[in-house]
# Entry
Amino acid sequence: MHMIHLLDIPLSSQFSVMSSYTPQTHLPLERSRLIGMMLGGVSYGVYLLLTVQAVTALMQRPRRGQKIANNRRMLLCYTLLTFALSTTCFACATKYTEMIWIDLRDAPGGPVAQIENAMHYRINFVGMLCGYVTDWFMQALLLYRCFVIWNWTRHVMIPMLVVYVGMIAVAIDVLVQAGTGAPFYAINVALAYLAFLVANTVLYTILVAKRLLSMRSEMKTALAEYDSSIYDTIIFMVVESAVVYSVFVIIFIVAFSMHSDTVSTVCFLSIYQVQGIAQLSIIIRVARGRAVTHVWSTRNAPAAPTTLAFAETTSEGPNATQAATPGQDSANESCSVLAKSAEANV
# Structure
């Protein structure tokens, strides 16, 4: 018998033989998983960098030797906790991506079946659970910021809490279905969860911006030469953070509703990092000293604050018992709200 070597076969025939062993598969879906992981790795790298910067800024002592404010400690714990959850989520996605093309490459259905039936493997459920809990913590921070700025007003708290509780209830439903092994893109209630995320973010942005715009108007009325740039800066930070995340989620919603698994896969693998990046960008700015301090809320005739810094609990100054004009009262209230906005780290 004569052995036929591959080198003895014409090149054109080699390609013909190799192509005959190529399984029929959904190449766009496989590419989207790979592209999504690469983009997810980039976004995670940015998220890691911002986390390090935020932790460093939050651990620095304020100027003039004051103690670290309690809200800084809270934000430090929040930053580390959400980073740990996001890291676990990304690690699970990375490991399963490796399994798709290496450990499970000979599994029935090939890579496409593993991508579509990802919830059959517990590692994906763990990653999804960590991602959802991350969402809950990040949305809870939005609620806290909004409640502080509105001074815990009931008509603001109730609709925000309703949306938040509805979001968690829908998320639990998604997790229950995913736990039974249902394909993620077949869980239609996941659309409602994404809609709740957008609704909560948009509602928070509108309420905070409305409150700050109202206070800015009162300050201008009370003080003719008041420089309102501090309000503009905070509003811009809030809107900028919300727009980046909301647009990303809306793209995910459209792709999910149109059953575009390729685009949905790309968005799904980066959504938690994008949300973390949006929130950390604000935390870092405020932690580095660019927010108003409590000093402005203790003056009867406040000057225009020009920097941002973390605010501690506002207290009455020694002259608080002196009579003040209506314009001064309005200015003091506006400065107090501005201090609270810094304390909440909007």
Remarks:
- Confidence is low (pLDDT under 50) at residues 1-9, 11-22, 290-328.
- The radius of gyration is 26 Å.
- The longest helix spans residues 70-103.
